[in-house]
Amino acid sequence: MYFKRIALLVSFFISGFSGQTFQSDDLEYNLSTPMHTMQTHINFLQEDNYHPEIAAKAINPKYVSSKEEAANLVIKLLQVYRAEGILIDLGDMPNETNYVDSVTKKSIYRISSNLPDVYLQKDGNRWYYSKKTIKSIVKLHKSVYPFGVDKLMTLLPKMGGRKIMGLHLWQYFGILFIIILCVIIHKVFTVLITGLIYKVLERLKDAEEAKKFVKKVAKPTSVLVLYPFLLVLVPVLQLPLKLNGFIVMALKFTWPLFATIVAYRMVDLLVIHMQRFAERTESTLDDQLVPLVSKTLRLFVIIIGILVALANLNINIIPLLTGLSIGGLAFALAAQDTLKNLFGSVMIFLDKPFQVGDWITSGDIDGTVEEVGFRSTRVRTFRDSVTYVPNALIADTTVDNHGLRKYRRFYTKIALTYDTPTALIEAYVEGLRKIVEMHPKTRKDYYNIFFNDMGSHSLDIMFYIFFHVPTWTEELRCRHEVLVSIMKLAESLGVHFAFPTQTLHMETFPGQMPNSPSYIHDSTEIKSRLDEFEYNLKSLENGK
């Protein structure tokens, strides 16, 4: 007893000068450094060392009205640490009396970035929870334990005190209850979410196509609903602080992962709707845009999910984003051509100078567009080879889109011999016009067929018409039909085509036929033959 009193006097003497170690009811506590203050708070609230009146010493007595209030505040603050998954590692805390925060340059120590209002502050030679912390404890406690859930923490321990493998019996029952509750909630919300998605899809008229994706969206979404319940109920079990911290951090880490899965599946549903919309439009470029948008959205969802998961692990993503931006700048400088092609593809999708299936001509490029990608456009040439053209090149050059033509022009010159009578020329021109008017695929409101020129070796008729056909193959077929009709009309009227020649005319020898071709000069005969040709042409068309 004598030695005990001497020890108390020495301890009191030392504490009075150094402010390091104090004693209350034969229990020592220390407030000299941030580490010792946190040790006083945490260690004296453990199950095997439960002394809230000593833990309350971490509260600055200037800002509380009683010791009971201080004890209640430190208990609530520890419960906040549990709910937020704050891992208290005393070994990583500063063990310096004169510790100064590197950011604020003040004598404060912040417990966690997740709780910016909770920090220790030096007052004299001791470290206490700050005035701002004391004022925010009750508000923080209500936010992490809504609906009075914290009352269960005083009720559940009374159900059983026996320990098995480090946990009380009531804690095992609590874990079992949470598992059963999660299974029920998962089943119920899966059914509800499935029905809700079906109703939305029925309004959008996409139910049949999206049927196989509905459950893939509903199941992870129902799992996502469980997390708010788990984040509230797990801290109620009052598991060991480190174990509880790891569980809460695992929940906060996996929550954005499931959210990413849900968003990824939602992209599938969105793609189905976009595909149906693209099918209703005439442009085939929309069909190429859908997979590109789908890939971009999926990549965006994955990146955001990873960043949120890292942020929930208390990893500062600001340096990561900064590094990505600097690296992105360097990458952009090194990949200017790739970025040009990317912006070129954006301009193609916005301006829509062509679409898949169009015949285009751009510089040396001549062929049919097969695919439009982010970097290049694939063109099938008429040699049946495939050309990959950078989108930046297409965006910066002139594109002649033959596929946008409403009509396809056909121009040729019909050369007649110089000895063709004028009446026969008039009849032949009239017959050519009837060929155009009676052909089902020619433009009737605009065409030009005239005796146009007197060339060096022929009398030239301009034949300038348009075909209303969608493809080049159809155009060639119509050209064939028209040219054959032109030949037949010439045969019917007895018109001869000229070609570059030099003719030497000689006197007609006795007993021989003249070299010059003979023509019909009777206008009545010419009109009769023209009517006969028109009748045959109509019969041919009607037969088709």
Description:
It contains 16 helices and 17 strands. By secondary structure, the chain is α+β, with helices and mostly antiparallel strands. The protein has 4 domains: 143 residues, no CATH class; 167 residues; 68 residues, Roll (SH3 type barrels); 125 residues, Alpha-Beta Plaits. It has a 5-stranded antiparallel β-sheet with strand order 13-12-11-10-14. A 3-stranded antiparallel β-sheet has the order 5-6-7. Helix 15 runs antiparallel to helix 16. The relative contact order is 0.05. The N terminus is likely disordered.
Question: Can you summarize this structure?
Answer:
The protein is α+β, with helices and mostly antiparallel strands and 544 residues long. The protein has helices at residues 2-18, 34-43, 52-55, 67-84, 131-144, 152-155, 169-204, 207-233, 241-280, 285-312, 317-334, 336-351, 391-396, 422-438, 472-493, 523-543, and strands at residues 21-24, 27-30, 45-46, 49-50, 108-110, 119-123, 126-129, 163-164, 167-168, 359-362, 365-372, 376-381, 386-390, 400-401, 408-416, 448-454, 459-467.
